[in-house]
Design goal:
Strands 1-2-3-4-5-6 form a six-stranded antiparallel beta barrel. It is extended, with a radius of gyration of 19 Å. The chain has one domain. It is mainly beta. 0% of the residues lie in helices and 51% in strands. The protein has no helices and six strands.
Length: 93
């Protein structure tokens, strides 16, 4: 059995994880994207899906997601924000 340390418990501040990272695209379709200042060509599309959510809260989420294979061999998920008209890389760290 573990002994009770009698230390005061506290809630640590929350920090967001897996936040989308804004990226640049050279077209409306994911053909080429800039990640960390470097342009990468999309070799293949693996999947595509759309999410429409939160409309009842007044902060609508409408996104078109793409799972793509990059020329460097990485498979990443990117999305186009259809409300704010921007592109982002979705991380899963």
């Amino acid at each position: 059995m573990v002994e009770n340390p009698r230390a005061e418990t506290r809630a640590d501040p929350l920090r967001p994880v897996n936040q989308p990272v804004p990226i640049e695209m050279d077209d409306n379709d994911p053909v080429r994207l800039r990640v960390k200042g470097r342009w990468l060509v999309v070799s293949a599309w693996r999947d595509r899906w759309r999410i429409d959510d939160e409309w009842w809260r007044g902060e609508e989420i409408s996104r078109m997601y793409f799972k793509v294979l990059l020329e460097d061999g990485r498979e990443v998920t990117i999305f186009r924000d259809l409300v704010k008209c921007g592109w982002c890389l979705q991380t899963y760290d």
